[in-house]
Fold each of these.
Amino acid sequence: MTEKLIFIDIDGTLVDYENNLPSSAVDAIHQAQDNGHLVIPVTGRSKAEMYENILAIGFDGYIGGNGNYVELNDQEIFHKHLTAEDTKAIVDWLHQRGLEYYLESNSGLYGSKKFAERGKETIQAYSAYKGKADAKQMDVKKVFPDMIFGSDPYRDDINKISFILDDYQDYLDAKKEFSNYKVGTWGGVGEKALFGDVALDNIDKSVGIGFLLQYLGKSKEDAFAFGDAKVDIPMIEYCGTGIAMGNAGPETKEAADYITADVDQDGMWKAFQHFGLI
């Protein structure tokens, strides 16, 4: 079979919303690689959030920041990020509003002064929406164990800035204030608006994939995309074959060419088998 590129979202696709990684998914990835295919995660996570249990799988590349950063064989080949001026403007606005935030960079996650304290309640709500039984025992340090506090927030290497929504109006005002950027919300299962985020406009998962395919001289017809959320729709529609997990939302399923089983019901393995990748 001709070499294919398999692009996989992480949260809700590779791992479930309790961060459980099915062994069948790991087996499918390794067998596909043995068959000569490339397997690459495509995620909103910056490199600092690619924890060891995921990195240990051994991917052929990495696309992070929802498409703003691309690696191939551990070498950076593409990176579009907020400038120092962008970051300062966003951070100053958040300070003015009294909103706590964290900066997402490949070098680390950088929390605002009171993010750990203010974030406890929101993190518990986020954990509950992700289905965690111990949600009431969660806090920022458990969810983001490597988060760094007290650093200068005016950085020039930031992929995205996430902030706690005290009210949905905070998101609406951010969207108005930063109309030249991509402003969104997130919050676990159902994509509930617990956090807002600000990133560069005109960047989505298909941008990173498109750059990598061009770099490798590959056609999008050679590409498979797996996802579960609305943020995955651009890559599902862009790639030659788009696959939605059984636990995906209705809009994501509608955009897909094929719907597999849930992430925790061997959905990835079953789809890899269905398309002859393994």
Amino acid sequence: MSDLSDTDLYGFCIPEKETVFPHLRGEIPGFGNQIPRFEQWQEHHVLDKSAGGGKGRSYDLAIYNIVKYFQLCMENNPNMIDSLFTPRTCVLHSTEVGNMVRENRRLFLHKGAWHKFKGYAYSQVHKMNSKDAPVGKRQELVAQFGYDVKYAYHVIRLLDEVEQILTEGDIDLQRNREQLKSIRRGEWTQEDILKHFERKERDLETLYTNSKLPHAPDEAQIKQLLLNCLEHHYGNLSDCVVNVDAAADALRRIRAIVEQAGY
């Protein structure tokens, strides 16, 4: 089946400091002419003719501004969460900042993952059940198996992953690989997929209720991780952000000095 599939490559980058902190170049967000800021770059079906021993391989590429990447991960976007938990052996390149993010990847997980993953799974079920004529490579899948097994694969994958999130607060993307391979080989019928989906959805609603994960992300901690990453890359950020706690502490000390002086 690999000859019918593009390989997805995800990553993030840190753009110039003025892109992340536009006030450094005098821009006031929402006022006047706004300078376009890089958020993401995507390109599909990029062919590497030298890959696969000369057989070639097609890639779907996506590179995100680190700020947008953090936001999507904090929202538990399934594609971004997958990229965080990709096995080390599948990581093509990682900087020290990349390692910092991966070391703290469980920080992004919360119970809201269930709603995100369920929504994506419903979308895949809808596409799998669609009566629209398939196009491109999907025509071959439907002709061979009677339905689009690639959509079915994603339905089960999403449910497996969110089950791990809710029960363990972690994801092993390789745990159910044999089950997923069997779906891609057409060993499950479309009816099998739908019955599994209905049963799993009921079970996951219970897991969601009982999960020990926080209901929402810890935005303050995730923001601090983002700032640590940016400081590691740019250097000192004192000209970019105000440390509210430090400022408040400074005001307290000034007030104490003033009061001690009798003013």
Amino acid sequence: MLCAVYKTRRKEGMYLYLPNKDKFDDVPEVLMNTFGKPQFVMLLAVKKHEKVAGIESETLQKALSEEGYYLQMPAQMEDWLADHRMNLGLSKKAEE
């Protein structure tokens, strides 16, 4: 199974996977409005990989066949300042 991968300029790390290139019919309008103009990244053979960008291949294939798309959200950013404060023996936040 091939899928088309798109990124957005609006949010780093957000990707939209579609079973067919440039066919956005199954993607809800509100999601497309939030996502903005999709930028094509690549075609990907999903079945050749156990995981695709951290997504289980089976999960991705199921979403593509049942929903018609898969939205990958960016990973949560770590709070480096809180980690640094903890390493210094301080509380995570200055107000604590």
